[in-house]
Amino acid sequence: MSRLFGSVRARATLGATLVVAVALVAAGTAVVLSLRSNLTGEAGTQAERSARAVAAELAVRTPYDKLSGLDGDDGPVQIVDEDGRLVAASDDLERISGTATADVTPRPSAPDGDDDDDDSGDDDSGDDSRGSDDSGESLEPGEIARETTFSNGSATIDGDAEDYRFAAVAVETHDRGRLTVHAGAPLAAEHSAVRTALTVMLIGFPLLLAVVAGVTWLVTGRALRPVEGIRREMAVITASEDLARRVPEPATHDEIARLARTTNETLAALEASVERQRSFVADASHELRSPIASLRTQLEVAAAHPELLDLEGAVEDTVRLQHLAADLLLLARLDAGERPAGARVDLAALAREEAAGRPGVAVDAEPAEVSGSRGQLGRVLANLLDNGRRHARERVTVTVRREGGSAVLAVADDGDGVAEADRERIFERFVRLDAARSRDDGGAGLGLAIARDVAVRHGGTLTAAAAPAGGALFELRLPLAGRE
């Protein structure tokens, strides 16, 4: 069960079904309440109409036994006097509730001598006959109250028991004082309609929810089918370690298609990274093999013939091996994402320091402070100077200037320069443009690669261009301290 609801498909289906269920229950409740209110209002209107019809007959002094509304055809009717006594009721009325009195048999009024509303009183007897209903409304004889009160109850007429909506209307009569007419209209239509609506909902809602769940299950399954294909292919790639494989890309233009394309781009980048790593290891092994083999040969010859020991060559090979190991170690640290230190470095002072003791190197520098590692930036400048001295005919020029929010360090030589097509390739690792050049003179081809990696780690750039003197120009741009 937990595995089932752990899937996106199951959770989407459950969520959609719950949302629709809540919406249906809310809508169904609103419909039932609205239906009940409307039908109850209609029953109340009908009851009020019956009550006012009886009240109108009472207002024109119609005797109780002549009232047309007491036949029971339109519903139960009660007429109650000011003292709450039932003075008239519908024929065959057996039981009633929800009105002013539960009596169904009329009782005679009090004798005239005991009636406070007796017409034989003084001149103010007309005023005594006036009354007011519960709302304080004053009525003249023969006038019907504008206000109607409603209540719910039940009644049994000739053996038939039903629920009713009762309306109570007051009328001031000429000869019988204040009377209140209670008339009822049946609520059978309201109950029937509500029961029908509830039945339809109880049957229809589950069916509708089943349809919603089924459609959501099918739609989400179809939408997630490409995701499952991507997952299976990624599992195969993980198991086989074959980074040349790619996940299937759906022909749609939705999020899943973009996910597939991004996944393939990631796989391509990962494949390229792994290939670079393999190439790096192979090239490093090849570069290390040469000085180690040379050093071993010299030591073996020296062991057999001490007089033939080339001590100077052995030292050169050892130094070359040491430099190569240091370069490889620095590249490994840069590849691992090592962040440079945040010290302030004056490129002008660093340029003068690195140029000191190097013949043919001229420095023209203005102060320009950057933030980073002095050792790594010094390594960049040293590599650029070594590269310049290797290719220059006579002179290498180092300039430092401030340009906007950047510090620019430029190293130019008067050599043959770098062809435009090779100005990016020279920054690749173990690349030497002069294939005939010996490794002893040309190095391992790591200097410029290290210089660019250090520049990027410091938030800057390193580019190659043509120098004004016709040679190569390398420009290092770094953000000024405080402008990173």
Q: Could you name the ranges where pLDDT drops below 50 across 5 or more consecutive residues? A: 110-135, 435-441
Order of helices and strands: HEEEHEEEEEHHHEHEEHEEHHEE
Rg (CA only): 53 Å
Overall 3D shape: rod-shaped
What is the typical, i.e. mean, pLDDT? 83
Number of domains: 3
Query: What percent of the residues sit in helical stretches (DSSP H or I)?
Result: 40-55%
Helix run count: 9
Neighbour order of strands in the largest sheet: 2-1-8-7-6-3
Our estimate of the beta-strand percent is 15-25%
Largest sheet: 6 strands, antiparallel
Query: What structural category characterises the helix and strand content?
Result: alpha+beta
- Counting DSSP E segments of at least 2 residues, the number of strands comes to 15
Distance between the termini: 54 Å
Main CATH class of the largest domain = Alpha Beta
The CATH architecture assignment of the largest domain turns out to be 2-Layer Sandwich
CATH topology of the largest domain: Beta-Lactamase
Account of the protein in words:
By secondary structure, the chain is an alpha+beta fold. It has 3 domains: 27-192, Beta-Lactamase (2-Layer Sandwich), CATH 3.30.450; 255-334, Orthogonal Bundle (Helix Hairpins); 340-479, Histidine kinase-like ATPase, C-terminal domain (Heat Shock Protein 90, 2-Layer Sandwich). Helices cover 47% and strands 19% of the residues. The chain has helices at residues 8-59, 125-129, 188-240, 255-304, 311-335, 347-355, 374-391, 439-442, 447-457, and strands spanning 77-80, 86-89, 93-97, 131-132, 138-139, 149-157, 160-172, 178-186, 343-346, 361-365, 369-372, 396-403, 406-413, 461-466, 472-479. A 6-stranded antiparallel sheet has the order 2-1-8-7-6-3. The longest helix has 53 residues, at 188-240. It is rod-shaped, with a radius of gyration of 53 Å. The model is unreliable at 110-135 and 435-441 (pLDDT under 50).
